[in-house]
Design goal:
Oligomer: single chain
Mean pLDDT: 97
Helix content: 40-55%
CATH superfamily of the largest domain: NAD(P)-binding Rossmann-like Domain
CATH class of the largest domain: Alpha Beta
Strand content: 5-15%
Bound molecules: nicotinamide-adenine-dinucleotide
Radius of gyration: 23 Å
């Protein structure tokens, strides 16, 4: 079976590599970015994901996996084409489907065989129907074509593992044929397949992400109240977590969620809902809490220091979460902007996110992969991402290297007691 994949981002590339890894022998990944395709052919992963590069090299050398910018050669004789291009946020909060539509046009013009088109990108409910109608109307050749929805649930940072050991594979199909084809694709993964219709599958993805975003915002809301009433959100979360109905994941308070999914998927579902005359109040609340949470610590710091003008500030952690190089919607961005606008002199630490940060802040801040260097002589330190290097850092160094250390920790990395014993002025979230 020839499987072509449109888009080699976190979803497309990981999917392609894992399909080859479980035994598919003809997987071709298409991207419009020539530099990326060249890198991948040389065995270099254009994104940072654990184990990705090793599996890319292995399966490319086995001849099961290839990369190309030539979509015609990839699509024309494929039996399955998976679409994994981006669906970013528009300024009104709705999902931008231009990339998907472009691929649909390319597919309609090129396929010469019966093809199942599988949409893996996160798309608003009804998009699969619209794309099917468009492709059928614009087909150049007389072939059978159908669309199936197959939303992706991987998390960045553990994308390869999440794909090879997925909790479930959701497929939204409208025919037995589509279901059978997807069973051939996914049976080697030996994971439960949940089959629904296309609209329900599209909704499973949004409802899942929005529920997780809601869980985070709920805990952040509770954390803020904990600070006011003298409770400790970590103890509260622990107490809650013993209840199976609540579970222990996503109960950690912090400075809000970021990344390429939660922010846009909450806004897109809220937009879709309003567009259909219904207000999704819970999701709206999740969005509002997150927006205000992001700048919580810089606002706190501005109550402590008189001014940021000329103040040397260390920002530890730039990416939206650890184990990824992705900076999309990372809380570090508005925080650094806030500090720069007020004249702070910022040195930022991150183990893998510096290249992407440079695209945003250029030389307006300094960068380092060394925590000692970042905090040295600084007066304030903000922690934005709970990288292992930060969690395991020798706390005494804050005391010896910073000038009158003031630490504002947006990820609750350290024990309150340890900081108290060291005599460091330390603020975290909800404790
Ligand atoms: N990143 C995640 O963790 C994640 C998880 C689940 C679902 N999703 C969803 O999956 C989709 C893709 O997300 P991503 O983070 O992998 O995106 P991404 O931005 O990392 O990658 C998209 C890729 O598509 C390429 N592209 C654009 N137009 C193309 C075309 N016509 N043909 C071929 N390639 C083209 C781009 O060059 C880019 O490399 C989105 O809808 C997202 O919401 C993402």
């Amino acid at each position: 079976m020839k499987i072509a994949i449109a888009g080699t981002g976190y979803v497309g590339l990981v999917t392609g590599v894992c399909l080859a890894e479980v035994g598919h022998t003809n997987v071709v990944c298409v991207d419009i970015d020539e530099k990326k395709v060249q890198l991948m052919k040389e065995g270099v992963a254009p994104i940072y994901e654990e184990n990705l590069e090793a599996l890319m090299i292995k399966n490319y050398n086995l001849g099961r996996l290839d990369y190309t910018t030539d979509y015609r050669s990839a699509y024309e004789d494929a039996e399955v084409i998976m679409i994994a291009v981006g669906t970013p946020e528009r300024s009104d909060g709705s999902a931008n489907l231009d990339y998907i539509k472009k691929v649909a046009k390319q597919v309609a013009e090129t396929i010469t065989k019966d093809t199942l088109i599988v949409i893996k990108s996160t798309v608003p409910i009804g998009t699969n129907d619209d794309i099917e109608e468009y492709i059928k109307k614009n087909l150049k050749n007389n072939v059978k074509v159908e669309i199936a929805s197959n939303p992706e649930f991987l998390s960045q940072g553990t994308a390869v593992k999440d794909t090879l050991e997925a909790s479930r594979i959701v497929i939204g199909v409208e025919s037995e044929w589509a279901k059978e084809v997807l069973e051939v694709v996914y049976t080697p993964f030996e994971q439960p397949i949940v089959a629904t219709n296309r609209r329900s599958a599209e909704m499973v993805k949004y409802a899942s992400n929005d529920f997780l975003a809601l869980k985070i915002s709920f805990m952040n809301d509770i954390a803020n109240l904990c600070e006011i009433v003298g409770a400790n959100v970590e103890d509260v979360a622990q107490g809650m977590s013993y209840d199976d109905r609540i579970g222990h994941k996503f109960l950690k308070a912090g400075i809000g969620y970021g990344g390429s999914c939660f922010p846009k998927d909450t806004k897109a579902l809220h937009w879709l809902s309003s567009h259909n005359g219904y207000e999704l109040k819970t999701v709206k609340a999740a969005i509002e809490v997150n927006e205000s949470q992001k700048l919580k610590l810089v606002r706190k710091a501005s109550q402590i220091v008189e001014s940021f003008e000329g103040v040397k500030v260390a920002v530890l952690g730039l990416t939206f979460k650890p184990e990824t190089d992705d900076l999309r919607e990372a809380p570090s961005i508005p925080n650094i902007q806030y500090l720069l606008e007020r004249g702070a002199v910022v040195t930022a630490f991150d183990p893998v996110g510096i290249e992407n940060t440079k695209k945003i802040f250029k030389d307006s801040i300094s960068y380092t992969t060394n925590i000692d260097e970042a905090i040295s002589e600084s007066e304030i330190c903000f922690i934005m991402t709970e990288w292992k290097d930060i969690l395991e850092y020798d706390l005494l160094n804050y005391k010896t290297k910073m000038k009158n250390p003031l630490i504002l920790d947006g990820r609750n990395c350290y024990k309150l007691e340890d900081m108290k014993n060291l005599g460091i002025e330390y603020y975290s979230i909800g404790r």
